Amino acid sequence: MPRKLNNKENVTQPTLSESPELATEETPVNHFANVVLNGMAKKLSPKTENKVFYELAVHDDLNAIYLRISGNEGGGLHSKEWIALDDIFAVLDSQKDKPFKSTVLKSLFKGGSANNVGFLAACLRDMSLTVPAEKSVFLHSLTPEYEQRCEELRSLVKPTEKTK
């Protein structure tokens, strides 16, 4: 039976259950434990030699490759969220015949850091998916071997029973 704390307050204490339930605390699952590539890309600015670090990992449930920017030299905040490589390819595929700015990559991020798109663009250059456009080092074009590189990166996923 609940008891009153004092006459002035009308607060009651919860009663104990006869059959206590186990409190289960859900531990977060790391779906990206299988990192298949650690990369280091030069930042886009010609004024610096600093690097951006990135990882490619296989999502263990979805069996798909994801990329995240894991760090950088010289400062600059960025989002560390995982982005599906197929989503990146979809954005790049829509830019096939023309130079494009890093801002076309903005839709891939949930986080709002201004550095995200530039850092990701540097990673894409390091993976030989893009090259600097002729007009500016801050514009990008797909490499001639873009399709081949996409297939090579997709092949980092080993087929499972689910995907066969």
What would you say this structure looks like, in words?
The chain is of the alpha+beta class. The protein has one domain (34-154). The chain contains 3 helices and 7 strands, in the order ββββαβαββα. It has helices at residues 85-93, 115-126, 146-154, and strands at residues 34-42, 51-59, 64-72, 83-84, 100-101, 130-132, 139-142. Strands 1-2-3-4 form a 4-stranded antiparallel sheet. Strand 1 and strand 2 form a beta hairpin. The model has no long low-confidence stretch (mean pLDDT 85). Residues 1-25 are annotated as: Disordered.
Any low-confidence stretches, pLDDT <50, length ≥5? none
Please tell me what the overall shape is: globular
Q: How far do the termini sit from each other?
A: 60 Å
Largest sheet: 4 strands, antiparallel
| Helix-strand category | alpha+beta
> Into which percent range does the helicity of residues fall?
10-25%
Percent of residues in β-strands: 15-25%
Any idea how many domains? 1
Radius of gyration from the alpha-carbon trace, in angstroms:
24 Å
Adjacency order of strands in the biggest sheet: 1-2-3-4
Rounded mean pLDDT score: 85
Give the helices and strands as they follow along the chain. Answer: EEEEHEHEEH
Number of strands: 7
Tally of helical runs: 3
Region (Disordered): 1-25
Biased composition (Polar residues): 8-18
